Amino acid sequence: MQDLSELTQRASELDGNDPIAHIVEEYERPEGWIFFDSNSVGPVPKTARPAANALIDDWIALRRRGWAERDWVDMPAILGDLLSPMIGAEKGTTVVCDNTTINLYKATGHALAVNQERTIILTQKDNFPTDIHVVQGFERANPSLEVRYVETEEEALAALSSDVAVCTFSHVGYKSGQRWNMEKFNRAAQALGVLTIWDVSHSAGAVPVLARESNADYIVGCGYKYLSTGPGGPAFIYVRPDLSEKAWPPVCGWMGHADIYAFAGDYEPHGGIRRFISGTPMVGANQIAHCAAQIYQKFAPKDIWARHESLSNFFIEALQQSCGDLGVEIASPLNYNQRGGHVTFKAPGAGHVVEALIDAKVVSSFRKPDAIRFGLSPVSLTHAQVVEAVGRLQKILKEEIWRDPKYANVSV
Fold first, then answer.
1. Residue of 29, 106, 118, 225 with catalytic role
2. CATH of 71-295, one of 3.40.640.10, 3.30.565.10, 3.30.450.20, 3.10.50.40
3. For this structure, is 128 an active site residue?
4. What is the pLDDT of residues 140-149, one digit of tens each?
């Protein structure tokens, strides 16, 4: 096998020179396990367990009084303000609520109301399925609308026209890990009056997302990946401040009313971003999400993004050096500025390799037909763990451990 001593030494130096190496101490790190699945579910803040217990105590002691004596009602806006730096947004422009699919529906419906004279929706052919399903739902409900599909950034730019109402794109491809140039596309779209929606589920919390700087119109994403808000944790929606009040949200609910406790029969939308909150906040999920959001107040986003860049580049280097002659082929862009939170690579028996890795205490993910995804968390991984994980992968490939029949059934 390829000797890993040089990589181990380099990892030690990188970790030793890391200005925020201590960030990993904020999270639970089960001994022996190395998690590369933050593109699916992020790490657990150490404060999550006591926070969950505190909520149960409040439930027991307060019941309905919790709405008045705790921040349950305001938490979507509070969390939005706490997490907004991680998507490059200013306070008062983001709320944490619902899930990504619902927030995509809200953003798409709002954009179509703003650009109601236009009839074309653009999306990526290989977009995450839920993103495609949402726009197909609008197309089916309104025969005047047409969804058009593009495959590359160049194709998307060429497809822009005065007939396009909105583009809904993933900032980072969920399979390939390819990152699109948000700022460049926003400029081109806005020159033609086209609105843009970016799903940053595979980038927020890992790589730079610059809502304000790129002049994004809408941004949505889930919190449970790199942002670590917990399994099935609440999603978020950002709307450019000058856009939010140009139309009613397509999902009107009492929590988005101008006066929640007026219990008015007629809807009057709240000013600004809060109109995009619809129903009752997910109090339990928000309590856990708050734990993660508080950690981000201790570290500058640019330092977290820089840490991810270092881990991601080092992982590719280690993978190529130790497994390049074992059939491993990098499928994600090698240029970091074109890559998102995870690195995708191809390997013989990919799905079975992922199962064998779990037995070796390395958790990654598989996507058909032959892609292995390593989602690198910038808040819980070290460079030393990268080398250790690559070493375990090297052994599985070299000794063809993955061919064992017990790895025949591949999990999602």
1. 225
2. 3.40.640.10
3. yes
4. 999 999 999 9
